[in-house]
Design goal:
heterodimer; A: 151 residues; alpha+beta; Ubiquitin-like (UB roll); DNA polymerase, domain 1; 2 domains; five-stranded mixed sheet; 6 helices; 5 strands; 17% strand; B: 751 residues; Aldehyde Oxidoreductase, domain 4; 3 domains; seven-stranded mixed sheet; globular
Chain lengths: 151, 751
């Protein structure tokens, strides 16, 4: 067990956990930030995507001990009231079916668009390939990313 | 206007409504759930008035509509309340939707399954809205001292034209809640619909995109412990011994014990399938700590002896089933299926003299098709919250059939049904898997033992390796053509492990004079159950691939060949039990033919495949255009034609259609769960391949047949024919027919 001070969504949080604990479980179990989802635990599905600085990371394999002072953003902190351009585009295209993977999709898309504000289809596919949607909303996700990029 | 009685099925809707009149007294926690969310939230009324079980109206006119069925991505939480709102004649912008509690007295059929929610809810939902509207009109008539028949409504406002009076629903809500429920109500004419048939966004959209806790896995209570289970690594195995000394000493671990999920003498109902009857429970303070202890647990497993269980399947007599012993392997399954396919099966339907027709045929085509077990892989792994005390049980989580699971739970815990409260959370996918809620029993038993609130979490590995899978299937088709290439006989023999996928009265039964349908089964101890469009998900792929090859053998266009057979079934059907409407079936083929420009040159060098199917009361045809690039199929475009009657919410319907197409392509290309000595070969998403962004179609166009037929389901019917459309398009692209699914599996290239 060790104490960590984490900078999450612009606020400081103290947790006392095993240093090997992945951020996913720190967020979900210890801080009750459940918007970040568990899907596979081996960084294969993307449901647990958060931002470390500006970079999208899989929180299920990211030990809390490696965070340090870096700024962590989760879906709860992406915008104040769901008005991030990616979230707005998701609502405009009515993307979700079951909705479980969508927070991870949105976090991944938001980081991707920040690095690549005007992507083509191939770039979108390559960037989003690590995020599985079992309901198959891929066509809408791609359209929403394009809307977010141009909007 | 349609006049309908306010009864539904065996149950009187009136009685349910009368009960609902005291709803608040009965402890509905509606208000607690009605917290405003987001910036567009409505101003909530100071007071609510219950009108009936489905809705309540506030003094300011805001309406809360209860969505009776669980939501797992089928859009029912948006589209079912739309139906209520239509006949209530209210402004959709003033509607709040709430998930209804499980209450089988008030609501009928509160479950996900068989694409039936809209179809079977249609009348009851319309009636609920219409009854409330009638009561509001009565209340206004009394207040204004005018005949009720002179009152009209529009978008939540009552009008009396002659006196010029008007009032919002909210103003009359209090009085309306005291009006007696009508014995009959008028439903709107379809031409007057303002909400049904118009695109409406997902009512939970904002909550989803902002990551609010909607899912069972997000459940959090003060003092809640986390539980996981350790289960046999393979089917055919049971627990021999547990050494928990190391695991028990690990940080944050509270207890480790074994639980028996069902009692030996329990008579199981249809949805009581349980993967492993005895499992080890590990309980601790946090998920990560419990995960570590689970890894440190030392367990020995041993093969079990064959045993029997008493079981009642839907619509069947009670049966005693034998669960065979043995550690099964897919290689053995494959040869056993080929063996069974070579022997005569059980005859399910015979028309004419098929054998004579085959003997005199000019040409005979025979082909066999196979498909493997599939895991559902819902993105939200199985989980459930349980808080069981001495005399009651509170549960919350994602499940498809709460009213069925409740019975097994009551018996197992020894707590009466009325002391069990199951709250339905949003489901992070279901696809059939969450119909079998043995994990709910596990959660409840662990909570009972711990005397504490707990959340049971399956890891992804548990979810995949303790599955209730889509069975493995095999089908052989044989067809006879005469010298003029007319179809003279059709023979299907299908089977599976452990269930037959055959639907003997389905097309092309009825379209051919000489027809034979047989089936067979092979027992297994691998647990199987519903998977999106059960049985049809294989039979459509096999049959529609075969018809494509048969059309080619006959030298006919594959789409026109189907229409030719359907014309026969429509004008002069063979037999009386055919389970489809040949005109509606032909209708979707004609629509997809028109919309895709079928028969003209294939677009932009792409190869086209067509397939159609009828299941779950709806008709679907797809035309798929694909190219092959670097040995990989690239789906350029899919045209879908659908006849599901009235489309309630076109926006949700198109989304569901697109998802079905993507799911179908993914499973037929990659989906596969194989076994070796009882152990699944894949346990996580690094090995189990699920379709990804770059593999989805570049475009999907969905077209609905416009008619006034009461709506039927959409969650399943679009899925089965996708696989054959892809197989048929691939054949045109590569010149090679594919018979064994998955077509690619783990391979990066075809072939």
């Amino acid at each position: 067990m060790a104490n960590f001070t984490l900078n999450i969504n612009g606020k400081k949080h103290q947790v006392e956990v095993d240093p090997a604990t992945p951020m996913l479980w720190v967020l979900r179990d210890h801080l009750n930030l459940t918007g970040t989802k568990y899907g596979c635990g081996i960084a294969q599905c993307g449901t647990c995507t958060i931002h470390l600085g500006d970079v999208a990371m899989r929180s299920c394999t990211l030990p809390v001990s490696q965070i340090g002072n870096q700024e962590v953003t989760t879906i709860e902190g992406l915008s104040e009231s769901g008005d991030h351009p990616v979230q707005k585009a998701w609502l405009e295209h009515d993307v979700p079916q079951c909705g479980y993977c969508q927070t991870g999709q949105i976090m991944n898309a938001a980081a991707f668009l920040k690095a690549n504000p005007n992507p083509n289809d191939e770039a979108i596919e390559a960037a989003m390939n690590g995020n599985i949607c079992r309901c198959g909303t891929y066509v809408r996700i791609k359209a929403a990313i394009k809307t977010a990029a141009t909007g | 206007m349609t006049l309908v009685k306010t009864t539904y099925g065996r149950r009187s809707f009136l009685k349910a409504t009368a009960l609902a009149g005291g709803g608040m007294v009965l402890g509905f926690s509606w208000l607690a759930g009605c917290k405003p969310s987001g910036k567009d939230a409505l101003t909530l009324p100071k007071e609510w008035f219950n009108i009936n079980g489905f809705l309540k109206i506030g003094e300011n006119g805001v309406v809360t509509i209860m969505s009776p069925n669980p939501e797992g991505g089928q859009n029912v939480k948006t589209s079912m309340p739309m139906i209520v709102a239509e006949d209530l004649d209210v402004d959709w912008a003033k509607v709040i939707v709430e998930q209804a509690p499980l209450d089988t007295e008030k609501f009928t059929r509160q479950f996900i399954g068989g694409s039936q929610a809209i179809r079977q809810g249609w009348q009851a939902l319309r009636m609920a809205g219409a009854s409330a509207r009638h009561m509001l009109m009565e209340a206004a008539a009394q207040a204004w001292q005018v005949p009720a028949g002179e009152i009209t409504t529009e978008a939540g406002v009552l009008f009396h034209k002659n006196s010029g009076k008007s009032a919002g629903y909210g103003e009359m809500a209090s009085a309306a809640s005291k009006v007696s429920v009508p014995k009959e109500v008028k439903l709107k004419d379809l031409k007057d619909f303002k909400i049904i048939g118009t695109p409406r966004k997902n009512v939970d959209g904002l909550k989803i995109v902002t990551g609010q806790p909607l899912f069972g896995i997000d459940t959090h209570r003060e003092g809640m412990l986390i539980a996981m289970i350790a289960h046999p690594p393979g089917f055919g195995l049971k627990l021999k011994s547990v050494d928990d000394s190391a695991a028990r000493a690990m940080p944050g671990i509270r207890d480790i014990f074994t639980i028996k999920v069902l009692n030996d003498d329990y008579e199981r109902q249809h949805f009581d399938t349980c993967t492993f009857l005895e499992v080890v429970a590990i309980v601790g303070d946090s998920t990560w700590e419990v995960m570590q202890a689970k890894k440190a647990l030392k367990t020995e497993w041993e093969p079990f002896e064959a045993y029997s269980e008493v079981r009642t399947f839907w619509g069947q007599e009670k049966q005693t089933l034998t669960i065979p012993a043995g550690l099964e392997s897919s290689s053995v399954h494959k040869s056993k299926m080929a063996e069974m396919a070579a022997k005569p099966g059980t005859v399910r339907r015979k028309d004419g003299d098929p054998e004579a027709a085959f003997r005199s045929a000019a040409k005979v085509l025979e082909r066999s098709y196979t498909a493997p077990f599939l895991a559902h892989n819902c993105m939200e792994p199985m989980n459930f919250f349980a808080h069981v005390t001495a005399d009651k049980a509170e549960l919350a989580g994602p499940l498809q059939k709460p009213e069925f699971t409740e019975k097994a739970l009551s018996e197992r815990l020894g707590i009466p049904l009325e002391k069990i409260d199951i709250q339905m959370t949003r489901l992070g996918g279901g696809y059939g898997r969450r119909s079998y809620a043995h994990w709910l029993l596990e959660a409840a038993l662990i909570s009972q033992k711990m005397n504490a609130p707990i959340k049971l979490m399956y890891t992804r590995e548990d979810d995949m390796t303790a599955g209730i899978y889509r069975p493995a299937y095999h089908a052989t088709f044989r067809a006879a053509l005469d010298a003029n290439n007319n179809l003279t006989a059709f023979h299907v023999k299908a089977g599976g492990i452990p269930e037959s996928p055959l639907a003997a009265d389905r097309f092309p039964a009825g379209a051919v004079d000489n027809y034979l349908a047989e089936d067979w089964t092979i027992d297994t101890n691998i647990t199987i159950g519903s998977y999106r469009a059960p049985r049809s998900n294989f039979m459509a792929s096999a049959e529609q691939s075969f018809l494509d090859e048969l059309a080619e053998t006959a030298g006919k266009d594959p789409l026109d060949f189907r229409l030719e057979l359907l014309e026969r079934a429509k004008t002069n059907p063979v037999g009386e039990k055919n389970d489809y409407d040949a005109a509606r079936y032909a209708g979707v083929l004609e629509l997809v033919k028109e919309k895709s420009g079928w028969g003209k040159n294939d677009p932009s060098g792409a190869s086209r495949g067509v397939a159609a199917y009828f299941c779950h009361n709806s008709y679907v045809a797809h035309v798929m255009d694909l190219t092959v690039e670097d040995g990989k199929p690239v789906v350029q475009k899919v045209h879908c034609a659908v006849d599901c009657g009235i489309v309630v919410n076109p926006l949700g319907a198109v989304n569901l259609a697109e998802g079905s197409v993507v799911d179908g392509i993914g499973n037929v290309l990659y989906g596969e769960l194989t076994f070796k000595d009882g152990v699944p070969d894949r346990s996580n998403l690094d090995k189990y391949r699920i379709i990804r962004h770059s593999e989805a179609p570049k475009a999907i166009e969905v077209h609905f047949v416009k008619n006034d037929i009461d709506p039927t389901g959409l969650g399943e019917p679009l899925y089965p024919p996708v696989m054959a459309a892809l197989a048929n398009a691939l054949y045109r692209a590569t010149g090679k027919r594919l018979y064994d699914q998955p077509f690619m599996g783990e391979r990066q290239m075809l072939g």
